[in-house]
Design brief:
InterPro entries: ARB_07466-like_C (IPR058593), Zn_M74/Hedgehog-like (IPR009045). The chain is 39% helix and 17% strand. By secondary structure, the protein is an alpha+beta fold. The protein has one domain. It has a 6-stranded antiparallel sheet. The relative contact order is 0.23. The structure holds zinc ion (ZN).
């Protein structure tokens, strides 16, 4: 009986940690100023997904959003592109969405689909269809703290 209570207690604490994550939430921060390289959380996010799904990863690139004028999250080193396709890409997309709000992920894009906290998952109409890579964008807090 005592043992059972301890198991319940630990399970509750573990679930709380899973829900709370790093406290960064999944609120959206637009990019507005290029940095000079990848953010530490983005590096850790890249290795977290590479370890589980494989694929080449890219982070830093000082450029506008493809087909648009806004600065890309890649210019602030806050987005990771993981070169995966098909089911593997979709699994990585679902995985990123499932941990997003606990860990400071603000957007996930793959195969003409985009997820954000505000919009949920819906059609992505950007000029790059993201059929050969999963794009995972971190908010500023996540860019510092993901995986820390
Ligand atoms: Zn990208």
């Amino acid at each position: 009986m005592k043992h059972g209570l301890f198991v319940l207690l630990f399970a509750a604490i573990f679930m709380l940690m899973e829900v709370e994550g790093n406290g960064c939430g999944c609120g959206y921060n637009y990019a507005n100023k290029a940095t000079d390289g990848p953010a530490p959380g983005a590096r850790r996010l890249a290795s977290y997904f590479k370890k589980r799904y494989g694929g080449r990863t890219e982070i830093y690139n000082n450029r506008p959003v493809r087909g648009g004028k806004n600065l890309s999250l890649h210019a602030e080193g806050r987005a990771v592109d993981i070169y995966l396709a098909g089911n593997n890409g979709r699994r990585a997309f679902d995985h990123a969405v499932s941990i997003a709000c606990a860990h400071g992920i603000q957007e996930v894009i793959f195969n003409r689909r985009i997820w954000t906290a505000n919009g949920g998952e819906h059609h992505y109409s950007g000029s790059n269809p993201h059929t050969d890579h999963v794009h995972i964008g971190l908010n500023r807090c996540g860019a510092r703290n993901f995986g820390a």
